[in-house]
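re: ur question from the group chat, yeah i did fold both. here u go
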Amino acid sequence: MMLLKLVNEMPMEPDVGIWTSLLSSCRIHGETDLGEKFAEKLLELGPDKAENYVLVSNLFAGSGNWDDVRTVRGEMRELGLRKDIGRSWIQIGGKTYNFAVGDRMLHESEEIQEMWRRLEEKISHIGYKNSIQVQCFMN
């Protein structure tokens, strides 16, 4: 594997950022076996970071490995790690709104959802593909 050779021949020791990038690339390109090797390295360097476990879980979810997804989520629970809630910002009519997935607290929620739907429609024309399994990670 050329990528493993490249990593092994780097003049410095790969850090969390390198392993995170490599693992994310494996998820995107469906390289689960290689991603598992990178996941091991990532978790060695950052065993107390929830986001590392989320990336590993997403790798398995992307390939339909639901048993491994459950295992990784179980490890997170055992370690007391929780994923931070994802938040989004959108500006409508000069006003900025901050919200989480499923947030219906704002009285402008329907307008925000409509704007979001239009944005997704526009960016899908330039190649954006929504990745449901990544968005659906739950603690």
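okk and heres the other one u asked abt
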Amino acid sequence: MLLFLLFIRIPVIELAGNSTTYFIQEEEMVLGWIHSIEKEEWFETYKREKQNLVLTETHFKTYGAGTPYQAVETETEDGFIQMKMDLVYEKLNITVSENVQTTIFFEDREVPLYRYFDQYETVTIKTTNLPIWEYVRGEFL
């Protein structure tokens, strides 16, 4: 019976910095920040699918450099441009900063990443399948 436990893997989203790693159990998360040039909020919704993160939506207030153009559908609501997306990423590399308020949202939680990682630290976000013993002792947000 215990041998069976060695083969159990539980899918999670991993956020790994230079010396700290956290996990999210949820299948979906929103990454939010304040755009450094426009000084407006920007939100991207990602869903965990197998070994990838899929960008399903993005919300922002103004077009500019870096604005996605591969939208499946675009509309405006409450002052935000909302784009339905379907972009697959193996991983995301983000720079965490209090200046831009790098934050993740999932379920009913808001987690300011700049309080969990050092200023300007590069954080890699990806999906992984944790062995059950790592899942039990892992640090979850």
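fwiw on the second one: The CA atoms of residues 84 and 109 lie 23 Å apart. The chain has one domain: 27-129. idk if thats what u expected
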